């Protein structure tokens, strides 16, 4: 649940980037960190192994500015993708207001993506959260790779998008789709907040 | 002499409600022998803080560190004896304690324990 | 000092005075900040909160895996500075505290007065406020404009 302070008129939302190992979660945050003006973001915290695999989480706070009279901040997190770190993923997922599920579009990673998606649903259920009630956006990353190596967005939609949530093609390394993904998830999360009003 | 034995040397003095060995830097209890109702953690933290302040005062005055600090209140007495190994000996007593006997007891225990 | 709700201010002010802590954060268990003192940049506050929440969450999970009782407190002690992290219950749910302290105070004092802070917060917390309208229906234009600014587009 986003943290809302009516006295100081501030909103803080937690958005989590989830997916299999090396699918591009950290790359999304690195791109955002590189493009956002310094005064609108904090330092990126990256708790990683020596081989640059996420060990615990990456964290990037963003200052969106005023939206509807509320100072709005997003806290972006990534989870470690390797199967081994499930306990850590569960901890980072706690309190998430929205999730970007990052899919590695390479055909050879399909099973890993499926396993990760199931893992997301299981970890949410463990916390009493039904994924169908949580804002989710799907990002089909690495769409810049040769077509014979990847699955097209339509194919990936068939596999993952049973709810008809926003899905976007992306090349996180070069920034394609990164901004659009964040925008899509932000919109759903804030719209949900706006809908939670007396009488609505 | 073990810390437990040191503490029992003090607690056997009539009127003593408790004795503690405290880490001077952290203000944490190392060992204690306390009667019901004596808040050991609070005594430890506050006694260590007091000892640190007194050390600051005597250092500023160019004096050596005190060997005994005594705080006498209307309802009781607190004695602190700093030790050399980063420890502090603390005694908490009621108003019925023989203060002289307690002073000697704490100094003796501090001398043998540390 | 900044507190997200007014009722937190006095208990926190008392804690700061008595403990002589240098930096203090109170946050929800998911790392969202409720009150802060001693930070100069609000965005650094969020990083510290995220890290503190992560440490306490890992510690609690470790205890659970080991079949031990919940470990609610973690202390990191450096040569000049210490960090005290603790989870506690409030009428508003589980909160976490992060306290940075120096040699002008001690762990014992921080622990002692933090316990009093917890009890003061429990007494000071008002009943839940009724839900209120948060965002206007046309917030999306502002969101889009804000994101465009963020990404320099």
Low-confidence stretches of chain C: none
Q: Mind telling me the C-alpha Rg of chain A?
A: 16 Å
- Count up the helices of chain A: 5
User: What is the subunit organization of this protein?
Assistant: heterotrimer
Instruction: Let me know the number of strands of chain C.
Output: 6
Supply Rg of chain C: 18 Å
Distance between the termini of chain C: 36 Å
Brief characterization of the structure:
Chain A has about 200 residues and is of the alpha/beta class. Helix content of chain A is about 30%, strand content about 30%.
Description:
The complex is a heterotrimer of chains A (200), B (114) and C (153). Chain A is of the alpha/beta class and 200 residues long. Chain A is 31% helix and 28% strand. In chain A, strands 1, 2, 3, 4, 5, 6, 7 and 8 form an eight-stranded mixed β-sheet that branches. In chain A, strand 6 (98-104), helix 3 and strand 7 (136-141) form a beta-alpha-beta unit. The radius of gyration of chain A is 16 Å and the shape is globular. Chain B has 114 residues and is an alpha+beta fold. Chain B is built from three helices and five strands; from the N terminus they run αββαβββα. Chain B has helices at 3-11, 40-60, 99-113; strands at residues 16-23, 28-34, 69-72, 76-82, 87-94. In chain B, helix 1 runs antiparallel to helix 3. The longest helix of chain B is centred in the middle third of the chain and has 21 residues, at 40-60. The radius of gyration of chain B is 13 Å and the shape is globular. The model of chain B has no long low-confidence stretch (mean pLDDT 91). Chain C has 153 residues and is an alpha+beta fold. Helix content of chain C is 43%, strand content 24%. Chain C has helices at residues 9-19, 42-66, 107-124, 139-150; strands at 2-3, 23-28, 33-37, 73-77, 82-90, 93-101. The longest helix of chain C is centred in the middle third of the chain and has 25 residues, at 42-66.
């Amino acid at each position: 649940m986003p943290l809302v302070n009516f006295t100081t008129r501030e909103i803080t939302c937690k958005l989590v980037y989830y997916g299999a190992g090396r699918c591009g979660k950290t790359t999304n945050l690195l791109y955002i960190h590189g493009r956002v003006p310094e005064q609108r973001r904090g330092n990126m915290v990256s708790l990683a192994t020596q081989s640059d695999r996420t060990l615990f989480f990456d964290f990037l706070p963003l200052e969106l500015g005023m939206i509807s009279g509320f100072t709005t901040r997003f806290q972006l997190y990534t989870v470690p993708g390797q199967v081994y770190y499930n306990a850590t993923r569960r901890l980072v997922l706690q309190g998430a207001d929205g999730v970007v599920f990052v899919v590695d579009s390479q055909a050879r990673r399909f099973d890993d993506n499926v396993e990760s998606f199931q893992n997301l649903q299981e970890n949410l259920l463990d916390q009493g959260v039904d994924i169908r009630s949580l804002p989710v956006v799907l990002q089909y990353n690495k769409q810049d790779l040769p077509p014979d190596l990847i699955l097209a967005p339509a194919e990936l939609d068939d596999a993952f998008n049973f709810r008809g949530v926003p899905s976007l093609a992306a090349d996180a390394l070069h920034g394609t789709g990164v901004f659009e993904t964040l925008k899509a998830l932000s919109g759903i999360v804030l719209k949900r907040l706006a809908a939670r009003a007396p009488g609505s | 002499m073990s810390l437990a034995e040191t503490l029992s040397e003090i607690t056997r003095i009539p009127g003593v409600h408790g004795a503690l060995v405290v880490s001077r830097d952290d203000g944490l209890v190392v060992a204690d022998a306390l009667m019901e109702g004596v808040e050991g953690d609070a005594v430890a933290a506050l006694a260590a803080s007091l000892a640190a302040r007194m050390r600051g005062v005597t250092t500023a005055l160019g004096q050596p560190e005190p060997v005994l600090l005594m705080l006498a209140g209307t309802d009781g007495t607190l004695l602190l004896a700093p030790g050399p190994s980063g420890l502090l000996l603390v005694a908490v007593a009621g108003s019925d304690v023989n203060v002289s006997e307690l002073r000697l007891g704490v100094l003796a225990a501090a001398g043998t324990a540390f | 000092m900044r507190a997200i709700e007014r009722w937190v201010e006095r208990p926190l002010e008392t804690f700061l005075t008595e403990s002589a802590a240098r930096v203090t954060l109170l946050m929800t268990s998911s790392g969202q900040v409720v009150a802060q003192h001693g930070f100069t940049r609000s965005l650094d506050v969020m990083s510290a909160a995220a890290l503190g929440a992560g440490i306490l969450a890992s510690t609690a999970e470790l205890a659970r895996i080991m079949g031990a009782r919940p470990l609610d407190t973690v202390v990191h002690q450096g040569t000049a500075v210490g960090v005290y992290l603790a989870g506690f219950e409030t009428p508003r749910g589980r909160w976490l505290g992060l306290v940075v302290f120096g040699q002008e105070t001690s762990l014992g004092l921080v622990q002692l007065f933090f316990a009093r802070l917890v009890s003061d917060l429990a007494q000071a917390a008002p009943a839940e406020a009724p839900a209120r309208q948060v965002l206007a229906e046309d917030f999306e234009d502002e969101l889009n404009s804000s994101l465009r600014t963020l990404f320099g587009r």
